[in-house]
Amino acid sequence: MTLLLDRVTFRYRRWERPVLSGFSYEVPDEGLTILLGPNGAGKSTTMSLLAGTVEPRAGRVLFKGSALTSADREYRRHVAWLPQKVPTSRQLTAREYVAYVAWLKGEDRSTAWDRAGSVLDQVGLADRSGQKTARLSGGQLRRVGIACALAHDARVILLDEPTAGLDPHQRTVFRDVLRKVAARIPVLMSTHDIADLADEATTVSLMDRGRILHHGGTRSFLEHARPDAAPGRQAESAYSVLMGLEATD
Ligand SMILES: Nc1ncnc2c1ncn2[C@@H]1O[C@H](COP(=O)(O)OP(=O)(O)OP(=O)(O)O)[C@@H](O)[C@H]1O
């Protein structure tokens, strides 16, 4: 019950149909939740609303029982939002950048600097902490983004397609970091990479056209797979069945 959307309606332009209408969604308080759905389903919109980067036309965004207001410092501090492209400053080193973000979120300078060192170590980037962010790879930058969330004591982490475009090695490293982080802090992550969920996710949410089609434990999601789905393909099959793309028998 930490972070949720309560009967939210949202449209990008006044004359357009709402992307979400009377939409409610609660981010689970534990583990890794994966938000699946086809292009245009409303995943990024849902995450932007939860992150407070856009405001609903109707309904509420609630954090720890209080409605979000854009000036809410506690919210900014405790809800970490990582868009697909981590917005780093190219001139700063990884450590300077993480420390800067922690300072912006309210840590004092020396605490921010110390924590930046320790969290970069936690995401496996201790040896890159003195490197300019402009010279880091996409996968390393996403780990810098996670480090920022850890540095300012986030209570919830929202990740928009964090594994998109990563090579298999970077993806594995990123998932290892994610597994450790999600054991301590709830993480909501949108993805098209169904393989991400099989081993890692605690909860699976599937949305389409602004509606949630499934929200529950990974096992209950996988139970929707066709009985004859090939080993390792149950998640894809469950997705297709729930989306109505594939019959169950
Ligand atoms: N900035 C925008 N301006 C206008 N319409 C938008 C904007 N962003 C998204 N939309 C529309 O809102 C709907 C939901 O988009 P959204 O990006 O939330 O979906 P998504 O599930 O994240 O898709 P994808 O998997 O492609 O990232 C789509 O119809 C999309 O065209």
From TrEMBL:
Which controlled-vocabulary keywords does the entry list?
A: ATP-binding, Nucleotide-binding, Transport
Mind telling me which InterPro entries this protein's record contains? Answer: AAA+_ATPase, ABC_transporter-like_ATP-bd, ABC_transporter-like_CS, P-loop_NTPase
**A GO MF label:** ATP binding
Is ATP-binding among this UniProt entry's keywords? Answer: yes
Which superkingdom is the protein from?
Bacteria
Keyword Transport tagged: yes
Give the signal peptide as a residue range, or say none if absent: none
What the entry lists under Pfam families is as follows: ABC_tran (PF00005)
Q: Show where the ABC transporter domain sits.
A: 3-234
Membership in a protein family: Belongs to the ABC transporter superfamily.
Listed name of the protein: ATP-binding cassette domain-containing protein
The source organism is Streptomyces stephensoniae
